[in-house]
């Protein structure tokens, strides 16, 4: 469907490249489709590709796009947002070739107070899950649902906070990080990445992906990881 229908309609380059952060990735992997022992193998058995019992191999292509919009710190001082505010576009139709097309909105309360935020239009369903030991609630908009585009020819999901404007403190996430470049040249240049875990008692595994600036050359033998003042060996 390209940019004619579906979620790809929102991918306007002018808005994406002016965001606070964006990342594109393409993942390709072989997946055993038919095995001698099992009639059909689903997409989770990558190890069966090397097995002689695998009769047919398919290739799985997964494309991801991660974008971060920060309206709160851009001078507006509000946490309200909408699809049109972020992408300058709205969803007009679903892609006929898509077997699944959904939008998830995190509506989890940030404190013991209830009904701090509202989303519009009403979602087609609500989904609950546990993420990093914390219960999350998501409003789900199913673009394949016939009732979603009946009332309007476009879908502009909006989130508004009912919290008073004098309370503008952003909650600190459980896992967050910051990075800075220190020194200069190949001799004293270094990249420092600080990862914080604010959970009171739980530890989490962390996968770190570094994008190295072109003017820095990394020497892997100089890598040091320090946790609470002690050196930590990564896996």
TrEMBL record:
<protein>
    <submittedName>
        <fullName>PIGT transamidase</fullName>
    </submittedName>
</protein>
<dbReference type="GO" id="GO:0042765">
    <property type="term" value="C:GPI-anchor transamidase complex"/>
</dbReference>
<dbReference type="GO" id="GO:0016255">
    <property type="term" value="P:attachment of GPI anchor to protein"/>
</dbReference>
<dbReference type="InterPro" id="IPR007245">
    <property type="entry name" value="PIG-T"/>
</dbReference>
<dbReference type="Pfam" id="PF04113">
    <property type="entry name" value="Gpi16"/>
</dbReference>
């Amino acid at each position: 469907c390209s940019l004619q229908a579906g979620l790809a309609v929102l991918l306007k380059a002018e808005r994406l490249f002016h965001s606070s952060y964006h990342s594109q990735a393409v993942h390709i992997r072989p997946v055993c489709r038919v095995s001698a022992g099992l009639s059909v193998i689903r997409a989770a058995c990558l190890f069966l590709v090397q097995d002689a019992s695998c009769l047919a191999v398919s290739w799985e292509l997964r494309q991801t796009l991660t974008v971060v919009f920060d309206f709160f710190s851009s001078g507006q001082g509000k946490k309200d947002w909408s699809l049109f505010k972020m992408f300058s576009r709205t969803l007009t139709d679903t892609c006929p070739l898509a077997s699944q097309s959904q939008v998830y909105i995190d509506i989890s309360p940030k404190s013991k107070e209830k009904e701090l935020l509202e989303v519009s239009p009403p979602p087609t369903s609500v989904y609950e899950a546990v993420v990093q030991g914390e219960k999350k609630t998501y409003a789900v908009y199913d673009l394949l649902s016939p009732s979603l585009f009946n009332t309007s020819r476009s879908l502009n999901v909006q989130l508004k906070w009912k919290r008073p404007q004098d309370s503008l403190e952003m909650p600190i996430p459980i896992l967050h990080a910051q990075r800075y470049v220190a020194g200069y040249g190949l001799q004293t240049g270094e990249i420092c990445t600080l990862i914080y875990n604010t959970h009171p008692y739980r530890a989490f595994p962390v996968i770190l992906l570094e994008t190295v600036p072109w003017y820095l050359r990394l020497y892997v033998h100089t890598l040091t990881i320090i946790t609470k003042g002690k050196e930590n060996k990564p896996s």
